[in-house]
Backbone:
């Protein structure tokens, strides 16, 4: 993976920074240079917009300037919507823009409390049996990696196993921290990545899934990934990037899964 655009191509990514899941710090840990993180219109491949999280500086625009403008959204290959720290209702105009963006080939990844972007948004909401808030505060859970997430049947489990991320290799299981139970199952239009049992009551839960867009189309061009947990293992703190990220550290198990999901998000979907 290139560190910067002088080494090779990087996708053009927008991040609406949230207060509880610093995806930008994980991208940095993956090896992307700090110079690639800029305000929109800057020279970097990754643009930060402020939802309720960190900024580049005082000129970093509000995330609403992204959500409310389809033309702005269309500039990006991917839009990352990390957890803002609480379930936040999304206006119909913003969710409609998100659906149109994905249906035109855009790629979206959201996490944890970001479920509010999906569960009441049609047709996205129809891809899962939603159970918002069934269990909002699971400190950690060991869930099973599902097969296949796309591509060769064992590519995801092989990836996680080779990187030492699996809690158990057979069946393949991953221990995830800061997780919720908002999804009981997924429809045939979606692909489960992680599934297990709620540690509080043993009921089934799907902790990560994806679907292609337009939903149920034979010629899908976009993709949405939902993680019902914080991508970042340990939540960072700080007002500005990269000061928020703290000392460099190795990727955790769930951060290694995020790295895989970023490559998957970029992949071609149909000819």
Residues:
């Amino acid at each position: 993976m290139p560190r910067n655009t002088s080494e090779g191509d990087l996708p053009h990514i927008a991040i609406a920074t949230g207060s509880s899941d610093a995806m930008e710090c994980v991208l940095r840990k993956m090896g992307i240079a700090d110079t690639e993180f800029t305000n929109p219109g800057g020279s970097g491949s990754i643009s930060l917009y402020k939802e309720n999280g960190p900024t580049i500086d005082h000129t970093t625009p509000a995330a609403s300037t992204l959500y409310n403008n389809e033309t702005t959204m269309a500039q990006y290959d991917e839009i990352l919507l990390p957890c803002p720290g609480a379930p936040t209702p999304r206006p119909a105009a913003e969710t409609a823009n998100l659906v149109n963006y994905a249906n035109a080939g855009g790629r979206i990844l959201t996490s944890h409390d970001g479920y509010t972007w999906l569960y009441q948004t049609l047709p996205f909401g129809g891809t899962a049996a939603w159970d918002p808030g069934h269990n909002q505060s699971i400190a950690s859970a060991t869930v099973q990696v599902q097969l296949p997430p796309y591509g060769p049947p064992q590519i995801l489990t092989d990836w996680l196993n080779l990187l030492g991320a699996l809690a158990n290799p057979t069946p393949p299981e991953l221990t995830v921290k800061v997780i919720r139970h908002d999804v009981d199952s997924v429809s045939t239009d979606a692909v489960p990545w992680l599934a297990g049992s709620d540690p509080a009551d043993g009921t089934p839960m799907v902790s990560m899934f994806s679907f292609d867009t337009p939903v149920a189309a034979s010629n899908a061009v976009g993709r949405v990934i939902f993680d019902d947990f914080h991508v970042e293992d340990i939540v960072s703190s700080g007002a500005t990037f990269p000061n928020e990220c703290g000392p460099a550290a190795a990727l955790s198990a769930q951060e290694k899964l995020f790295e895989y999901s970023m490559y998957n998000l970029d992949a071609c979907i149909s000819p």
User: Anything to note?
Assistant: The two ends are 24 Å apart (CA to CA).
